[in-house]
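Entry type: protein chain
Record version: 2
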Amino acid sequence: MAAIYSGIYLKLKSAKTSWEDKLKLARFAWISHQCVLPNKEQVLLDWVTQALVSNYNKKHELEDEVVEKLWAYLDNVIHSKRLQDLLKSGKTVGLSFSVAEIINKRLSEAYSEKTQQNIGTVLSCSSGILSTPSLSIIYTAKCELLVDLLSKLSKLACQQLASDDAVGSQLFNVLHLTFAQYLLIQRQQANPNRVFGRLTSHLLQPCLLLRHLLTVRSWTQADDNHVCQHLSREIRSQIETLLHAGLFQPELFSSYKEELLSEQESQGKKKGAWKTLLLPVNTVQTKLGSDLCEPALHGAVVAGSVSLLYKLFLDSYCKAENYLVCFHMLSRLFGCLRLSDLQEEGKSDLLFPVDWSVELFALEQLLSLVLSNDIYNVASDRIRHKEVQFGFYRKLAQLLLTHSQASIPAWFRCLKLLMSLNHLIVEPDLDDLVSSAWIDAEASEPRTKKPQEVLISTIFHIYSKLRQFPRLFEEVLTVICRPAVDELRPPVFSAGLTAKLRECLLELPPNQILDILCLFVEKCQTLIIPAVEGSVDMALKLMSVCSVLHAFLFNMRSLDDVTPSPVVLRTQRLMANIQKGIILPLMELLQAPRSEGEKSELWLRKASDAALLLVYTWVEVDALFGVSCSKYVSPAAETAVTEPAARHWGVSAFLPGVKDQSWRRVMELASSFASTSKYCLELLTLQKVKMMLMQTEADLQALQHAAAFILESGRSTMSRGESEPWDGDISAITELSYPTAHWHLIMSNLTILLPYISLKDVEYIAKVLLETLMLAEAQEAATDQEPSISIAKISLGFIHSSLLPEMRVLHCAFLTHLIYQFAVVLPTATRDSVDLPLQQLSVTNIPWHEEIMASCKTVDPLEVPSENKVQKDELSLSWKTLEKVAQCIVLLAKNGCPVILKERQLQRCLDLLEIVSLLKLDSFLPSDCTRCFLVLLSLLVNTRASVSCSKLLLLKVLSTCLHLLRCLQAGRNSSSVLKVLHASDVLEAVMTSQLTACKFFTDVLTGPDWAQYVQEAQEFLENFLQMIIERRQSVKLNLEKFMSFLVSCRPDTGAAKSIDWKNWNPAAEQLLLTAFTTLCHVVTLHLQQLPEKKLHSVDVFCALLEPVVLQMVRTVEHGLQSSTPNQPLPVAFIPSVTTLLKADLSHPVKKDWQKEPSGFLKRPRVKLYQEFYSQILKELPCAGSNLQFLQLALQFLTVFCSVPELCPERETGLMVVFAIKKLLSGPAITTQVIRSMEMELTEVLVQVLGNCSDEEFYAIMRLVLQGLEVRNIWQQKAKEVLSAVTLTKLLLSCPLSGDKGKAFWFASPQIITALALQTKEACQDQALISIIAIPILETVAALLRQGEGILVNPHHVSLAFSILLTVPLDHLKTEDYHGVFLGVHEVLFSIVQCHPKVLLKAAPSFLSSFHRLVVSVMHEGRQKGDRGNMDEFEMILKCAHLVERMYTYIAAEMEDFTVFSAFIVAHYVTELQKVTLHPAVKTHLTEGIYHILDLCIERDIKFLNASLPAGVRQVFKDLYNDYNHYHKAKKQGEEKYTA
């Protein structure tokens, strides 16, 4: 026998045996149990590795196919379960080092050949070797082989990322594994110089390139998802760890310091001394040289690497005593950037815009690190280091300002960082900074605008704090007065800058502000005004100066009665100077007669804009000063008094020295420009309206003319429909942004203007409002998220506000135009028919608004004499029209003559319905409410979709109509509809139309849109029927008519009187069942709420309900019979049967039916319920995550199980619980689904457990305990455990009394023990934490709360601590972390509240568990560069608040716990010393620990000061000082005033 086996080995070694046969023999020998070679596994491994080594060493040249098969064989052996089992059993099987060498060689060949098609097997082999400890020794024992492998894999990964091919996961998985192995080995290396040398020689360059390519890669759908989302991030993190641990070890700092400070401190040393030193910076700089990668990528890779290397350097060495070293490292790394070349003379403009962006981003990161680590200390640099840092930053600032890059956001951020370091760095070039970064900067894109605003805001803040604002604005004025770089300069102040300016001006002394204003006014008078005529450049300067004056005057602090008199007098002189020195000369200039050609010149337009802006600013500010400061005397005051009263509201009342005729010419000129000047005219007119309204007697005609002028001013531009967003800056209004500004002015001042606007203009506003809303959705999707104003945003904001319902005339006009738009949607053939409802409801000659006008005085003087009688007649005319339309709708519905709509028209209807939904429907007046109701009803019952229409679109339209009808019913005037319609007619029309429409929907019954539609139909019917009952008018008549209609219906094509069931329509059937269900539910509820004295009404309603119930039964039975086998029940059936059962149970109100169970239900119906119950139990476990079905099914089971007599068998309770357990253990059930139906599950179990026998309950408990057995999790049955845990939690929510309660609590120790074992097993697999661990924590918390006074054995409660100490709190997903944290906290809190005696005995366990929470929240709540997701941070804040709550409770309620207070504080400060907490998180934790410090006596404080380590002791001292300063003082103050 042995000879045969040795023969196989000889054949494998024989040169005569073909390789094909050898491979077959080798495979057979490996898998066959009959082949028993001595040390077979090692022999076969040696054979295949020797064959591969011989091939690669050129001893035996093999064919490529054979080589690939040998690799495949080796891969199969390495990954085989047989080998893994052998290794686990302790048998020694190894590989030779030559295997590692040939793997590295094969990968090197693949890299040089630039093909990765045939290396999958090799990668798989290396993966298997590295993941098996006994095999990976071939790499770990020879570190150079592992380094070589890592280098080759990194290069291959770079090659793959740089190509256009899709990225696969295999290479990156192996790379991730190799990095992990190398990092493990690197930590064990004792010689830091060797690690540094190995890293820089072999790994630095490929790692930096790989990190760059992973960062900049634009991932596509073809790329592997795991690589995109997980591996790329993990590998980048590993590279950073590798570089940090290899390049910047603490032992290497002396070398870095010696090299970096060589120029200052080592000049006297001999040159020979350098030969013995490691030059780490020079080495790294060399590796960042040209051979790093191909030239096209070199600059970007270096830029990305420099900032990373500097960050890692600072992480290792940044301490106060090392700041100079850190700075010199910065300067050396900056020298690697291409930017540094620009500082050399003769080198300029070497960089393309793309290169500038990359370089500036790297510089920004470097400067940000300097600032955040506080490396630059101004005083220290000046006194100790001869301003070496200042000189470096000064050159940087000069470089940036010499090569202005205003189109790149990072350029602004770099300048901002330099300003934040020291404003003197940029101070010498302040004029260049103001020019290139502000006044002349073309930063129009949002991505550059924001950093520009941040930079200028920083400049504002610094110069206002230094009280050098005038110095700054001297430079601004100097730059403005230079010749403009561009013909059209950007506006000086954006909305964001204006807000920052406002903050600064409020802090500045008023005299400094007046200095700036006087400076600008003087320069404008002397330099600009004399030369503005005919000069575009001067006109642009004038516009800039006027916009600055406007910004300052509008945002400075207003004068008031406490303002010093010198300031008031100086302000008066300034205002007079502006008026006489600038405004009047400009008015003279603008009123001069000009030809049409001259009027269109740019200089004139800009001069007009500037003049009108200044006029408006002057008038507004002058009026404000006059109102707020009694000491202020307006330059207009004296003139206004002497003017004749008839001309009191002429221009001279606002602007002294300007005649009305001159002003009219200026207005005519300004109105011809759709720009700032025209908008300022509107603002001046609005100011005139406000001032007139402040008088005791307002001139009504003047107010009407003013309001009409404002509206008319922008009517022509609004009608064009062309506009663009506006940022709110008056000086920046263009021809395209003017309509936006005009519309903003009207809508924001509509409350002032509306009483003086004619009805025709009101209709115009309503029309424009509707048109802009119809375009709003498309515009909102297209616009950026910038805070600019658009017409769509204005209209949407207005419609969302509470203003429109208060403006009843406009509300009414808007509704009229909206109805007209619905009428326009109709097909051309029917649009001209005046008899159709929508046409009648939108005609303009009906006085729809007269209901509003009747209660208020009319505005138009021509309408004043009209008599009340006429108004009443007209009012009745509108109601007569509504009644006529209502009858028309009902008639059309009965005759079945619908309007057919195409898909485009249907979509337009949906868009209009969306606008209707924006209105506050409950605020409509009776007539408008009725009109809107009739429109929606007409759409619902008198329109149909063509056959080609999208069914889902039609469903959405119908659902929206039903939803809006329901919203109208909720309004206070909902009953007004019944003035023109009978309730039963509405219900009948709706049901008839919808049953007819259902023939379209037979193939969409399983989708969410159908479920939504049925839900809306059900809610509409319920609300309408409820309204009929609550009105108490003709209730019996309306219900009787509707019931008889429903009984006569058949769910076929919708015809009411069909006599057979041939054309049975399942969609119509579900809708009909919904109607039956809703009717029965509403009437049954009404009967239950009737007082005893009205019980005679019960018989009447029961008699009405009987045929409905019978018809409902027939429909349900037929539906069940015709339903497809093995298909789930339609969802609509379940509430129908539930309601039917409820109706049957509530039917015999007068009789004592409980004593005669056979008398309250007919036998056939009992059979129906029992069959339905059986069907529900059958389908329940298969429902998956269909939440709607599950909730309805559980509601049915709740009602069914409440009547034990209905149950077909004695063990109903057990069957129900078994079905629920199967449901909960289904694959689609998640913890979220369980939470969503927890209430329904509890209700079912309450009924089941309340009616089941003790024996059944014992069986249920056995079922639960079986699910908690630990073998389930061993057998991968996690959902079985979840179902048992959930059932346990649900049982705790049910009232258990008598023997059932005793049985449950008798088993509770077994339950807690089982839960502890399950937690221990589940926490070994992170995937099971959310499935099992979190529900277990919730169940344990509930068990401990309910077991207060029952769980008397301390050991059983202490088992909970073993669960808490097992559950992990790190490396969790965000949602899992929050669930675990909350669960642990709730268990601890349950023990603290309900089992305090156990707590004192198990204090160490409690403190350990709670300390884990504290450490965890500190780790998660530490400060990070990027806070990440805001939701995650909110979750961490909640966790911190829970910790604070626990601290507070311990301090307030647990007096016996005082002895541990010092240990709690020691734990806290020890962890606090390790992290820098986010301020918000720290606030919660600090407030909590203050309460613990309240418990500490003087001895505890001394103990802490003596026993804590030095660093921790300092943290404690800071904490204790803050405690004494803030908390203790506040507490003593509160106690002083507490009775």
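Comment: The chain has a mean pLDDT of 82.
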